[in-house]
Amino acid sequence: METGLYTFGDAGTSRVTGATVSPETRLRHLVEEIELADQVGLDVFGLGEVNRGFYSVMRNFPNERIVLGAMACAEAQSALDMTVDYVKQRKAFGGVLWDKQAVRQRLADCQTRIEAGRQLVYHAASQDAAGHDCVKEVSMVKAYCGELVNSVLYDCVQFHGGMGYMRETPVERMSRDARVQAIGGGATEVMLEEVAKRM
Ligand SMILES: Cc1cc2nc3c(=O)[nH]c(=O)nc-3n(C[C@H](O)[C@H](O)[C@H](O)COP(=O)(O)OP(=O)(O)OC[C@H]3O[C@@H](n4cnc5c(N)ncnc54)[C@H](O)[C@@H]3O)c2cc1C
Question: Are 27 and 63 in a shared domain?
Answer without folding.
Answer: no
